[in-house]
Amino acid sequence: MDQARGHWSAQLVTLLLAALTACSGMAPNSAKSPAAAPSIVERLDITSRRPAFAGQSFAGVGPYEFVAGVATVRVDPKHPANQTVVDLDKAVEPDGFVRFQTDVAILRPVAAEKASRVLIVDIPNRGNKLALARLADGGNQYENAAQAGNGWPMRQGHTFAWIGWQGDVPLGNQGQLIGTRLPTIKNATAAITGPAIEEFIFDKAEAKSVGMLTYPAANTDTAKATLTVRATTSAPPKTLPQTAWRYVDASKIEITRPPEFDAGAIYQMTYEARDPKVMGLGMVALRDVTTFLKAGGRDASSQPNPVADINPNLAVLVGISQSGRFLRDFIWYGFNESADGKEVFEAAMPIIAGSRKSYVNARFAQPGRYSRQHEDHLYYGDQFPFTYATTKDPVSAKTDGIFSRCEKNATCPKLMHLDSSMEFWQARSSLLVADGQGRSLPVPENVRFYLMAGTQHGPAAKPEYGVCQQLSNPAAQAPLVRAAMARLIDWARDGKTPPASRFPTLEKGLVEPRQAAIGFPNLGSIGVAFPAAFNDLKLVDYGAIPPAVAFDKPYALLLPRTDKNGNDLDGVRLPEIEVPLATHTGWGLRKAGFAEGQLCGISGTYLPFAQDAAERARRNDPRASIAERYQTKGAYVEQFAAAGRSLRDDGFLLEEDLVRLVDRARRDPRVAHLPD
Prior knowledge:
Largest sheet: 11 strands, mixed
Number of domains: 3
Distance between the termini: 68 Å
Helix content: 10-25%
Shape: globular
Radius of gyration: 26 Å
């Protein structure tokens, strides 16, 4: 990594201190902070301001409005707080600064005096907003009342913000898609080029498929690139002849599938790319735009702060999936410290991130990539450190932790890490609590781990097969996410101790990755196979092109045990898992013609129970039927409600969600055949 280093002149220090104080309303902290701000928001231009949810009013708070704008941020490449941003020194403008623009979108109460003063920053996922749907069971846009769902976060008076960070998502979508315009690094006389790796799995039966390149090719001569294909990650690659593929243009290739490979084949292209962006500036955007919003002052050009009248006093950072991995990088690189040495975010909630980080702060970064057993297996972003406490890794011999930097300056947030069952199979979640030799790891006092038991990466809105052998898993996560958010805010704002971690550990719930140890029932009689593999992990040499395993000894990875129904036994079991009508898993398997038997991406499996003993016998299903489990509909509903009440009492379910879930259980068509 090239990292610029240097010192501020006394005159520049004075000027920028004055600018910081004027634009943000913050006085510098001489005891902890650098002498000047690492960057400032030069302008925040509001491009749209309109009623949200068609003017719907929320009890006790009133209506909301949606505000969209574009922030221009000026960054000092020599400031110590920016030194971890890769290639920042190669995007400097003539005045010595680096500038970029980012979309900013805000959802806020119209009446500031009704606001909770809690600012929830939802890190966009590929430009998309995700947190609101999980917190309100609605949509992630704001055009009509239906998108407000149950309205829970609005009824609390919380303010939401979305700040662009992903350099390959375009800027300027009026807040619908949240993007950035990051600078491209350059030499004085020519574009910067370098090796890049692309991987494609098309999962289509067509003979020809088109793949998009993250970065344009420096030369479209196919002789200057290499394209290989293999059936699985463990199979040897076969180099394709130049006649099997072509450049459509500098950013697009067309591949003709060899007849001996199926639709799930893995294509890997190594080529000379050009025009890398300073992707690490996404962390600067999140740090400095949030700091500006919290400070309440005007920007450097005297534009008003759109939440100044709300005056947020608690910032909560939420990241889901890709965004959760980025959240972990943000903290790991030390960006949760503001210019005055304070926490930017007092609380954080990475959701379904597993033990991974992101492929962002690197030259030719690809933020959308993440390792799975079959897809993108050796891409950057899944190496040590894995957990929050500072530990020594027995495999790499390194010492580090996600909280290693923030612990040194007391800027670590209170953090709740929520994972689905899939994260153990595909994202190595056992490394959060057990090291690479299977030894227990410490958990910091300001961290909680919760397993959303029996769920896949993201719940299927409607169970479907896709390229998987079985239906995808619809088990809900949102009720737990809402309760966890309420507990996290109480913890960070009021000091109320949240529920203890409820997550498989070495002492309880984590076992060797064998079916017998896990306890998963033998369902071969109904055509359900148990996975033969999961996403293993070894040390990777990213200096090799393409990346290669540096040390062939794998990390010891563990998986959650299940009950006799095949549902996760440990973690937070919402009522549909505790009082089941089906088996819900975090894993699925690819079907024939699509790399059969490999883990099926981020999908789980949904296997409904037979309705009664006769159907169970016809299916040869070893699991008890619904009628054999619950003699009447009332018995089912009462067991369901009792499970919900227990979770409510333990802090894992809101009272209003308990009411909704029980009502849904009464109307569930899967128990309609039971007598009342």
